[in-house]
């Protein structure tokens, strides 16, 4: 069995960057991946286009118990350095509103370029190998797979991902391995995911898309606001703005807190401006009923629920609306409140919130502060980003940092790291330690010979005394 300098468990974005950087520095490296091919989750990003990163990376784009940890790490391998790296392996990129994609608009281009780079560096890749156990004996990590294969190395990098999209290889095994080595793991919940509601009217909007603002409220207090295109489904709400607030909703629901969402369907105007607009339209279109008036502003599917919530009949003519009714209707449209009762499963979310606690990881190297030569990178760590390439950037950066930190082991390094009891300084110690069985036999034979000679000497002495 070959003994590697570094063994990387997981062939996703973070694991592959770790492998490339470590191999570039002359280390012997292997990647162990449980799927049939490496980079499966990369292929799924950006709807198959691969949203590689984002040109605008800020601290608030990352979440976790210590979001500053992510920003500190990202400063050590920036977006510019990431893009320079991809250009060095032949990936030309383009930008759309800050979102970065390969010019080919194909995630397969990115995975292929990474794979070719790994091959050129002599990295050994073992696919269809699901790790079931990991142990450290002395200075050596050894993992065993479900397929009964064993791999050993002086350093181990856990790059298994979280629990999101297990069909692509992330089944939460990394958390188990981390706990096995004494690491703490926070509660892990789906993030960047759809939210479920008990509001019956919302389900009538299934298939509707509407631009607006969305706020997440926990026990009545706003904790996060976003805007963009909201998608309505048969279970509740989805779309990018929903994904952005979802990690707060899922975390709080897990704790038993009351979670609500308010939607502003006319965000571009203030309440007073919207009220004046509705009043002006009502004066211009006295021949219309309120349903017909609102259908000139909003999707036809939305209007009946607005009126139902405001307790206004659809057939009410605009000229018959009271000021109170108009005020209440405007408020409902700009503050449409729904209760959140659940969220999509790990199978349907894009990333996880939670993971290995960052205070137990060195932010300069991604090395465990508990176990020497053990590293954690990517989604397995308690860091998650918003939509827009931020999670892939975290994977690239944390992986590169670990790959830049692992060390090549020389013979002298291995001797230095042996326990003191094994360092043999004297001839006697070397004699006793080398080939113990063989030398033990020789030692016994020598002792017998000495004893025999001592016996002869005693007999000679006795004869002399008699004389």
Describe the protein:
It contains 16 helices and 20 strands. 40% of the residues are buried. Strands 1, 2, 7, 8, 9, 10 and 19 form a seven-stranded mixed β-sheet that branches. Strands 12-15-14-13-16-17 form a six-stranded antiparallel β-barrel. It folds into two domains: 3-190 and 350-411, FAD/NAD(P)-binding domain (3-Layer(bba) Sandwich), CATH 3.50.50; 194-343, no CATH class. The protein is elongated, with a radius of gyration of 33 Å. It has helices spanning 13-24, 40-44, 67-74, 79-88, 107-120, 173-180, 200-203, 240-254, 271-284, 290-294, 303-310, 323-334, 390-403, 411-416, 427-433, 436-466, and strands spanning 3-9, 29-32, 53-54, 62-63, 93-96, 99-102, 124-126, 131-137, 140-145, 150-158, 189-191, 195-197, 209-218, 221-232, 236-238, 259-264, 336-343, 351-353, 374-376, 384-385. Residues 415-439 have low confidence and may be disordered. The protein is α+β, with helices and mostly antiparallel strands and 467 residues long.
Structural class: alpha+beta
**Main pleated-sheet profile:** 7 strands, mixed
- Oligomeric composition of the shown chains: single chain
CATH fold annotation of the largest domain: FAD/NAD(P)-binding domain
Which value, in Å, is the CA radius of gyration? 33 Å
Please count the helical segments: 16
